[in-house]
């Protein structure tokens, strides 16, 4: 409101004149003027008398000795954590003091995701679904960040953030429907498995081409800013995707347009078979933040509370100050990249075992709960049984369900079907008629 008042003052707009317009017109007018004023206020001061560099592209001093800047000026960015590996709070003032109910919900979501992953991975191995990607080891990054957001915040994901959607309430039946491409799939069976999306839960449908979500998120965050909607956009991506040109475009647009956006990088050590030491030379992804003018932090992604605190604070400030934040969550991809990968070809069993047995987000949270007597062997046994039952029941329902009607393959791209698409559809039906024995149409919706 203070900003609006100062804009009014600058332009001599009295409240009475605003009231004469409709409320909508007034808001639009003010927004347009506020944008113009902000731009005017941002103009760089120009003082030609000062003996200092006048180049518009940098604010700096002259020096008289030749010196290259070392790339390691920004290196060794510290990793923020709240718990140690045994689940003990290191600095009590950083403890988010979440209720028992909230912490148990974190744990149950993290383990349910794990169980769903195991069953869908096995189901792909048995030839029941075509493809799958597990989230093993990265559960803390999903749940910690999702819990710190408002449900109205818009999520752009990569493909390994199923826990974010699960935390928002996407039911197991819809996860299964998507992977099985059955008639209940919101995408009508037209995407590869794990390419979830939910309009109701503000989760933008996943695209396979890497990093395309990053500039899209910047655009969405700019729209959110213009709406003054008190929302933030969060954009997840892997450290591998950060090497794409689109990442640069997204970072730079959001910084210069001052958008309420959280860039959430899951640095899990690999882009398929390429380890991080072959992907980049600087200090990870957080080190790039200052170069773009992004507020940046590196957190222990296996510490769900550290992820929660960092995301919560980034969200608060992104909305209050209209500026983008970069969170680099350090974690480890325990599973293979996907069902099309065999990671034993490029990493050792010892390496994987270390993360699985000694630095796992789920066991760390369990230590925390055990120390408070919130969870014991009995609760664990009962929950394992219950969660497995929930997943198996959803899995069986999905498997029995019919596939979507084949015609749906051709809908929803254009409002009205184009002649070319109509031709392709006819060709498909002729083909199906000709090779009937290969197309069990009774498994498809009529
Ligand atoms: C533009 C583009 N190039 C290459 C690929 C193939 N590809 C799929 S996932 C992937 C690795 C991505 O690694 P990262 O971003 O670190 O995510 P992670 O799988 O580790 O979660 C690659 C190269 C793709 N999908 N899109
Ligand atoms: Mg990666």
TrEMBL record:
Subcellular location, in the record's words? Answer: Mitochondrion matrix
Entries under InterPro entries matching the protein: Alpha-ketoacid_DH_E1_comp, DH_E1, THDP-binding
Domain Dehydrogenase E1 component positions: 108-406
The record's CDD domains line, in alphabetical order, gives:
TPP_E1_PDC_ADC_BCADC (cd02000)
Q: What does this protein do?
A: The branched-chain alpha-keto dehydrogenase complex catalyzes the overall conversion of alpha-keto acids to acyl-CoA and CO(2). It contains multiple copies of three enzymatic components: branched-chain alpha-keto acid decarboxylase (E1), lipoamide acyltransferase (E2) and lipoamide dehydrogenase (E3). Together with BCKDHB forms the heterotetrameric E1 subunit of the mitochondrial branched-chain alpha-ketoacid dehydrogenase (BCKD) complex. The BCKD complex catalyzes the multi-step oxidative decarboxylation of alpha-ketoacids derived from the branched-chain amino-acids valine, leucine and isoleucine producing CO2 and acyl-CoA which is subsequently utilized to produce energy. The E1 subunit catalyzes the first step with the decarboxylation of the alpha-ketoacid forming an enzyme-product intermediate.
Catalytic activity as recorded in UniProt: N(6)-[(R)-lipoyl]-L-lysyl-[protein] + 3-methyl-2-oxobutanoate + H(+) = N(6)-[(R)-S(8)-2-methylpropanoyldihydrolipoyl]-L-lysyl-[protein] + CO2
The record's Gene Ontology biological-process terms are:
branched-chain amino acid catabolic process
**EC number of the protein:** 1.2.4.4
Q: Which family does it belong to?
A: Belongs to the BCKDHA family.
What broad class describes the main subcellular location of this protein?
A: mitochondrion
Write out the GO cellular component annotations: mitochondrial matrix
Q: How does it assemble?
A: Heterotetramer of 2 alpha/BCKDHA and 2 beta chains/BCKDHB that forms the branched-chain alpha-keto acid decarboxylase (E1) component of the BCKD complex. The branched-chain alpha-ketoacid dehydrogenase is a large complex composed of three major building blocks E1, E2 and E3. It is organized around E2, a 24-meric cubic core composed of DBT, to which are associated 6 to 12 copies of E1, and approximately 6 copies of the dehydrogenase E3, a DLD dimer. Interacts with PPM1K.
Specify the species.
Answer: Culter alburnus (Topmouth culter)
Record keywords: Metal-binding, Mitochondrion, Oxidoreductase, Potassium, Thiamine pyrophosphate, Transit peptide
Q: What is this protein called?
A: 2-oxoisovalerate dehydrogenase subunit alpha
């Amino acid at each position: 409101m203070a900003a609006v008042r100062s804009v009014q003052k600058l332009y001599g707009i009295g409240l009475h004149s605003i009231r004469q317009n409709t409320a909508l017109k007034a808001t639009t007018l003010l927004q347009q003027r506020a944008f113009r004023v902000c731009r005017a206020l941002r103009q760089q001061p120009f003082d030609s008398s000062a003996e200092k560099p006048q180049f518009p592209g940098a604010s700096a001093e002259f020096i008289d000795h030749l010196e290259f800047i070392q790339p390691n000026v920004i290196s060794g960015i510290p990793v923020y954590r709240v718990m140690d590996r045994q689940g003990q709070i290191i600095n009590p003032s950083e403890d988010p003091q979440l209720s028992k109910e909230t912490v148990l919900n974190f744990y149950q979501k993290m383990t349910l995701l794990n169980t769903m992953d195991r069953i869908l991975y096995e189901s792909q191995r048995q030839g029941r679904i075509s493809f799958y990607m597990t989230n093993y080891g990265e559960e803390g990054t999903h749940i910690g960040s999702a819990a710190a957001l408002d449900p109205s915040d818009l999520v752009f994901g990569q493909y390994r953030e199923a826990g974010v959607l699960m935390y928002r309430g996407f039911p197991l039946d819809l996860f299964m429907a998507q992977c099985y491409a059955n008639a209940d799939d919101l995408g009508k069976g037209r995407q590869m498995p794990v390419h979830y999306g939910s309009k109701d839960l503000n989760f933008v449908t996943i695209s396979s081409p890497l990093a395309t979500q990053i500039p899209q998120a910047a655009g969405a965050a700019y729209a959110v800013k213009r709406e003054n909607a008190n929302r933030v956009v969060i954009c997840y991506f892997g450290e591998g995707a950060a090497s794409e040109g689109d990442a640069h475009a997204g970072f730079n647009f959001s910084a210069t347009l001052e958008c309420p956006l959280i860039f959430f990088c899951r640095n899990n050590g690999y882009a398929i078979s390429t380890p991080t030491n072959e992907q980049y030379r600087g200090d990870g992804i957080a080190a790039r933040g200052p170069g773009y003018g992004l507020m940046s932090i590196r957190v222990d992604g296996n510490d769900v509370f550290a992820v929660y605190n960092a995301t919560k604070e980034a969200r608060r400030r992104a909305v209050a100050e209209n500026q983008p934040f970069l969170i680099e969550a350090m974690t480890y991809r325990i599973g293979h990249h996907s069902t099309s990968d065999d990671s034993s070809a490029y990493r050792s069993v010892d390496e994987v075992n270390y993360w699985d047995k000694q630095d796992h987000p789920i066991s760390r949270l369990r230590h925390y709960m055990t120390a408070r007597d919130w969870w014991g062997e009995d609760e664990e046994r009962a929950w394992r049984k219950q969660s497995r039952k929930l997943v198996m029941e959803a899995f069986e329902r999905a498997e029995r369900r019919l596939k979507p009607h084949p015609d749906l393959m051709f809908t929803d791209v254009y409002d009205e079907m184009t002649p070319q698409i109509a031709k392709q559809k006819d060709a498909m039906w002729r083909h199906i008629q000709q090779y009937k024995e290969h197309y069990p149409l009774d498994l498809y919706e009529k």
